[in-house]
């Protein structure tokens, strides 16, 4: 066997050195593990110095590896007592980035094993490093993508759809199992001997076809940002009506993001109607702490004529809190 050749299988690299003297330096041929070509070198002085590094290339320069690995050094004779390194994890660019000194005398034949536990691509742009090998996160992500593709096809192509939804301006097909799993209200409809169970029909006359399509897209995991933003208020009403708590929370957080003088009173009314404390507090803070109530005096006067007494009382309490004497 050539003294510089490294054999590889899976994530293991093995270098068999047949002849090594007391003062010797050897470098292996390049060997590939993962995306990169690697090299090993050994140098004997007082210690045995082992280095692992990627072969200089454009790839190793632009996408240097973060390697997590163990090195084992074993004599080739009958008395094979291995020297095992700790687990190393570091960014490797050059032959100076990693060296392991082994405090032992090795002459003649011995074996160096490198076991790669993980290899990540380091981002020179400061992004998070990512593993090149499948891990639990990647597998879950792949499985989730597969599920979403299936659900999207079921909804779009009406595969085995078993319930009809009547909106104020059109009908849609859906699946009882998906609706039941997403909402305790829908689950109750199909569980008990209600009209929806007997007719396999749900009447949602307070939603348009477009808004209800957005609702189903959310429940099936296929909604896009543009549709969510366009139908937020309708989705909030549906989330409250059908007890879809995660959607309700998402709508509240979204409505908090873009409060302005043109929508703050409407948002405040929605927050009161659906008991959204964070949104209500955000609207009151915007109006009183930031003084935006002066910019919409006429609108506020109209709002006071129609708003609930309890809401007006809360607004008055907020005024007293903000404008209390120093």
From TrEMBL:
Biological pathway: Protein modification; protein ubiquitination
Cited InterPro entries: AtSIBP1-like (IPR044714), BTB/POZ_dom (IPR000210), SKP1/BTB/POZ_sf (IPR011333)
CDD domains named among the record's database cross-references: BTB_POZ_ZBTB_KLHL-like
Residue intervals of the BTB domain: 161-220
SUPFAM superfamilies: POZ domain
SMART domains assigned to the protein according to its UniProt record, in alphabetical order: BTB
Name the record gives this protein: BTB domain-containing protein
């Amino acid at each position: 066997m050539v003294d510089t050749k490294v054999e590889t299988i899976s994530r293991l690299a093995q270098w068999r050195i047949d002849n090594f003297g007391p003062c010797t330096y050897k470098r292996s041929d390049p060997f590939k593990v993962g995306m990169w070509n690697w090299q090993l070198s050994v140098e004997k002085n007082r210690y045995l110095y082992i280095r692992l590094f990627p072969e200089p290339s454009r790839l190793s320069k632009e996408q240097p590896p973060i390697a997590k690995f163990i090195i084992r050094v074993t004599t080739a004779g009958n008395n094979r007592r291995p020297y095992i390194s700790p687990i190393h994890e570091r960014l490797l660019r050059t032959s100076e980035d990693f060296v392991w000194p082994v405090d032992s005398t090795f002459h003649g034949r011995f074996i160096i094993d490198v076991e790669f536990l993980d290899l990540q691509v380091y981002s020179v742009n400061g992004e998070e490093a990512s593993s090149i090998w499948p891990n639990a996160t990647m597998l879950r992500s792949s499985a989730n993508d597969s599920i979403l593709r299936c659900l999207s096809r079921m909804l779009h192509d009406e595969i085995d759809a078993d319930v009809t939804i009547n909106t104020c301006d059109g009908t849609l097909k859906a699946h009882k199992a998906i609706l039941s799993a997403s909402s305790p209200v829908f689950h109750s409809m199909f569980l008990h001997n209600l009209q929806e169970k007997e007719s396999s029909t749900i009447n949602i006359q307070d939603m348009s076809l477009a808004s209800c399509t957005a609702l189903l897209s959310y429940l099936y995991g296929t909604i896009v940002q543009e549709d969510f933003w366009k139908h937020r208020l309708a989705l909030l009403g549906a989330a409250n009506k059908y007890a879809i708590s995660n959607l309700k929370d998402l709508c509240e957080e979204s409505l908090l993001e873009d409060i302005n003088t043109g929508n703050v009173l409407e948002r405040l009314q929605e927050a009161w109607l659906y008991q959204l404390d964070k949104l209500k507090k955000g609207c009151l803070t915007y109006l009183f702490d930031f003084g935006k109530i002066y910019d919409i005096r006429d609108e506020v006067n109209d709002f006071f004529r129609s708003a609930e007494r309890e809401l007006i009382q809360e607004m008055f309490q907020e005024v007293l809190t903000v404008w209390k004497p120093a």
